[in-house]
Design goal:
The chain is of the alpha+beta class. Helices cover 49% and strands 11% of the residues. The chain is globular, with a radius of gyration of 22 Å.
């Protein structure tokens, strides 16, 4: 390496990488990108839940209308996504949290081997969403949901930032698998 060039000189007769090409791109650090994404999602999830449940306190029935299709409601979801597998068992929050911890560990292992920034971000969104909802289960015994989308009498099940991140993360993961070129 001469003249402050960060790249070794290519062999004679080989033009080398074009400036601004893949060799000049900084390497992705999948673990760092994913963990930062996970932290942002988990913190945003907890902050929005605090603001809605403590600061705004929408009534338990009816909610606070934000637009003609969006309301803030106060729902304690004792099951998993969209209220599925709700149970009155006192062990349910701990069992669901243990499952979430196992999933987070597996996703973190996968994250260390991610080949694209999109996959790192999508895994981080899944991890952060799982952590955000697990915190609720441990602290409150249920997940705090508050976003209620509705149109013409149809109501989508209430959800939160963690749920949205999990959904977007899953979609990004599929898009990454289908369309993003790997190394």
């Amino acid at each position: 390496m001469k003249d402050g060039n960060a790249h070794p000189r290519p062999p004679r007769g080989h033009p080398g990488p074009a400036p601004g090409g893949p060799a000049d791109a900084p390497p992705i650090r999948p673990l760092r990108v994913g963990l930062i994404t996970a932290a942002i999602v988990a913190v945003a999830d907890q902050i929005t839940k605090y603001i809605v449940f403590v600061g705004i306190q929408p009534p338990p029935y009816g909610g606070l209308d934000v637009t003609s299709f969006l309301s803030l409601v106060s729902v304690m979801n004792r099951g998993v996504s969209f209220g599925l597998f709700s149970s009155g068992s006192p062990w349910a929050p701990f069992i669901l949290t243990a499952i979430a911890a196992t999933v987070v560990a597996a996703l973190t292992f996968w994250l260390r081997q991610a080949e694209t920034r999109m996959l790192s971000i999508s895994l981080g969104m899944l991890i952060g969403g799982a952590i955000g909802n697990a915190i609720d289960r441990l602290v409150h015994g249920a997940v705090m949901d508050f976003v209620n989308l509705h149109w013409e009498g149809y109501h989508w099940p209430a959800f939160n930032v963690a749920d949205a991140a999990i959904t977007v993360g899953a979609v990004l993961m599929v898009l990454d698998a289908l369309f993003v070129r790997k190394k």
